[in-house]
Design goal:
CATH class: Mainly Beta
Number of helices: 3
Largest sheet: 5 strands, mixed, barrel
CATH superfamily: Nucleic acid-binding proteins
Number of strands: 6
Structural class: alpha/beta
Helix content: 25-40%
Radius of gyration: 20 Å
CATH architecture: Beta Barrel
Length: 133
């Protein structure tokens, strides 16, 4: 009986240690990942406007490379959000850059940004984004 209890306790400790390791494992940068699709900011917003369900099935949680013109850049603490303008006055692309990624972007700059599409509210949001040179 003591052997069984010892084995169970050992398995529980090993399982907890493995879970702790996975929880604290750093997220890999998407810089070296291949983009699922390269698309313009206008085209991406248009696809979500026309059929959000289909666009979600295509882009949600996938790495997308978007080309567009910088509308504005917002820096809060260690987070930088780059807004790409589109032909749709109500929507833009919001690219949340990876933490501590400093960029000297200004309104009107043409950029290519690669990020993970997290969906569409009023804007299409890309997270963990990096600027492609």
């Amino acid at each position: 009986m003591k052997k069984i209890a010892g084995i169970i306790v050992t398995l529980l400790v090993l399982g907890a240690a493995y879970g702790f390791y996975l929880y604290n494992k750093p997220v890999s940068s998407i810089e070296n990942q291949t983009a699922f699709k390269e698309i313009s900011a206008d085209q991406l917003v248009s696809e979500f406007d026309n059929d959000e369900t289909m666009a979600n099935s295509l882009y949600l949680d996938k790495v997308v490379m978007v080309t567009g013109e910088v509308e504005k850049v917002i820096v809060k603490e260690n987070t930088t959000s780059v807004y790409l303008s589109t032909n749709n006055m109500m929507s833009s692309i919001i690219c949340e850059l990876e933490p501590d990624l400093k960029q000297n972007l200004k309104k009107g700059d043409r950029v290519k940004i690669k990020g993970v599409c997290s969906g569409f509210l009023m804007d299409v949001v890309l997270v963990r984004s990096v600027i492609v040179k």
